[in-house]
Design a protein that fits this description.
about 250 residues; NAD(P)-bd_dom_sf; alpha/beta; single chain; SDR_fam; 7 helices; Rossmann fold; 7-stranded parallel sheet
């Protein structure tokens, strides 16, 4: 494949957790707007179908298997895009899980899974892409946190803690990288996605069922991400909170 020519209109955008929900919606919208999307997730069949859909609609996309809890896989994901296209313009650290439960349920395995995916996954994305962006003297991280980074609800203590960590890491990164690299934190309120399917605890599942009565479509979050990416290089949209008009979450 011929390397993409750098331009202000088309960017090479890497998206983790791209097989469904916010990641999928973001990939589709960015491709519609002329960007080349590099899709990563564990569910490769879904990734393949998404990439084919995007190309059939006239967009530009490729896909790679990716488990963000594996630092080497994330590095290989970024390196493959860089080797093929000569640059990495945007890294969207979107992959996340949300198995809600009260702390008294003592679901340690689920807590650790959230820490591994929601925090380590973002750190792995930063570790893989930051040296590339430093060397090319431009780039942007879009880290998907949550409204849970700003408010805590019952059953969501650990989830909110991981998303506050994403917010804190993003803010620290923004202050460290200076003028060459932009950092955006996107905090969705309750959004239509498959995250709720990971909730095995009945109390947590019922809590989310209540929240989801006013859920906004994943495409709304994709539009916020696209807005941040499409700003002029001298503009850094540091944080966007997107929540339903009808609810508090």
């Amino acid at each position: 494949m011929t390397p993409l020519t750098p331009s202000t209109s088309q960017k090479v955008v890497l998206v983790t957790g791209a097989s469904s929900g916010i990641g999928e919606a973001t990939a589709r919208l960015l491709a519609e707007r002329g960007h080349h999307v590099v899709l990563g997730a564990r569910r490769t069949e879904r990734l393949k179908e998404l990439a084919e859909d995007i190309r059939a609609a006239g967009g530009s996309a490729e896909h790679h298997p990716l488990d963000v809890t594996d630092a080497e896989q994330v590095r290989a994901f970024v390196d493959a895009a860089h080797s093929r296209h000569g640059r990495v313009d945007v890294m969207v650290n979107n992959a996340g899980v949300m198995p809600l439960s009260k702390l008294e349920a003592l679901r340690l395995d689920e807590w650790n899974r959230m820490i591994d995916v929601n925090i380590r996954g973002v750190l792995h994305g930063i570790a893989a892409a930051l040296p590339v962006m430093r060397a090319q003297r431009h780039g942007q991280f879009v880290n998907v946190a949550s409204i849970g980074a700003h408010q805590v609800s019952p059953t969501a203590a650990v989830y909110c803690a991981t998303k506050y960590a994403v917010w804190a890491v993003s803010e620290g990164l923004r202050q460290e990288v200076g003028g060459d690299i932009r950092v955006t934190t996107v905090c969705p309120g309750v959004t239509e996605s498959e995250l709720a399917e990971s909730i095995s605890d009945p109390v947590g599942r019922e809590e989310m069922r209540t929240f989801r009565r006013v859920a906004i479509p994943a495409s709304s979050i994709g539009a916020a991400i696209a807005f941040a990416i499409d700003q002029p290089t001298e503009v850094d949209v540091s944080e966007i909170i997107v929540r339903p008009t009808a609810g508090l979450a």
